[in-house]
Amino acid sequence: MDPRFKIALLYTPPECYLKARSVIEFGAGEPSQLFERLTIEWIKNGLLDSLSYKKRQVANRRQQIVREILYGYDFVSQSSAFHIWLPLNAPNIDRIVTGIKNDEVDILGSRDCQVSNVPGPGGLRIAFGNVRSDEELIRGLKILVKHITYSQ
Question: Model's pTM, two decimal places?
Answer without folding.
Answer: 0.71
